[in-house]
Amino acid sequence: MKSTVVKSEFLQRKWVIVAFANFGIAALMGLLLRSAALVDLPWLNFRHMTHAHSHAAMMGWLYMAIFALLMHFFLSEYEQKKRKYQRTFIASQIAVIGMMASFPFQGYAAISISFSALHLFCSYAFLTFIWRNAKSENHQAIILLKTGIMLMMFSTLGVYALGPVTGKIGRLTDAYHLCIQFFLHFQFHGWFVFATAALFMQQLSKLGIGMKRAQFKAFHLLLLIASIGMMALPAAQYLHLPELLPLNTIGSMAQLAAVLVFFNFINQNKLQIDLQGNWVRYCAWMALGSILLKAIGQAALSWPEIALVPLNIRPMVIGFIHLLMLGMITSYLLMVLLQTNVLDASKRAFRSGVLFLFLGIIVTELLLFAQGISNWTGFGAWSFYNEALFAGSVLLVIGVFGLLAAIISNPKTQETQ
Q1: 120: Cβ–Cβ under 8 A, 6 or more apart, which residues?
Q2: Residue 362 and residue 300 in contact, taking contact as beta carbons nearer than 8 Å
Q3: Helix ranges restricted to H, 231-277
Q4: In this predicted model, what pLDDT tens digit does every residue of 368-392 receive, in sequence order?
Q5: Looking at the domain that runs over 1-135, which CATH code has it been given?
Q6: Whose CA is closest to 295, among 267, 344, 254, 345?
Q7: What's this model's pTM, rounded to 2 decimal places?
Q8: For the chain, domain boundaries
Q9: Quick check: 414 and 77 in contact, CB under 8 A?
Q10: Please, what is the Cα angle at 180 between 375 and 154, to 5 degrees?
């Protein structure tokens, strides 16, 4: 994809730096969680820190980076300069800081829920602005974007249900966990997936490239079926309704089919989608490879007879989440930031950061799935598994802070036409 398609200065460069700082904190929290298996940390509440880590990664890194990129690609320069966006971003970041400071010590409780609510309402405001003002030469990008926004709104029903469920049924019950899974599922497989697809289609629209009408209808419908159908897996677990598992199979197969449709589209237009520069290609390959592996793996494990087994194997669950958040979405965001000159591939800090990050992703994914398979087959824990996973997490931390240093050290440049 040619960098020449970007027509204006990236106005939210500082916002991306903030998002990367959040990413760094999330990575450090993840490293702390890994260290808990190696040293005694009596002050650490593992469950609470896990909540803090996931919210820092989701709301602090992915959401804030996508916030900046949606503005850049879908809004005019005049619209981007309106103060309401800056105020919404600042309020969202205050909420992120509040969540990172409160979740480690209390989990889901009054303070953390209050900051989560602040972030939620800021999200409502921002996405309403985007819904009203987004422009595109290709209506397909708008359809994907608005679908993602609707699924984001839909996901928040899980948040609103937490209060009544806690009051009537109690915390840490199946119903309580289902509410959280509902929110997380439609964030991961709804909002983030569709927002990333929308950004990609918007980039291609600058080159006059779009899917054929029938191809796009199939892609959009399959993604939607996948998002809704795969929710049946946690629903079957927490509602104790194995009858729902065939819906998860349909959703997983739809996800794989959507990925194959997307790969076919890429192949049909590979001569026009010119990924200039080796590092842009590396990021693209990591993103494409990750989503393909995720789709194949979840389809293979979706059959009703075995679907609930990997759901209860923690390394596998984390492995699939990281394939989406780190492997696919983060790699794609890095590719876009390279193309918009927010990142500079000639900088040693960038090259080192990407190498460490990608190596960390590959090492930790191999370890997580290998350990997951080992647990499934009854072989138990590997020797030095926790030490190796900790080392892989160190690579991730070095990579993230290397990329943060690369952005900070990169002078503000204006993209050429």
Answers
A1: 156, 159
A2: no
A3: 232-239, 245-268
A4: 999 999 888 887 777 788 999 999 9
A5: 1.20.120
A6: 254
A7: 0.91
A8: 1-135, 137-274, 276-411
A9: no
A10: 125
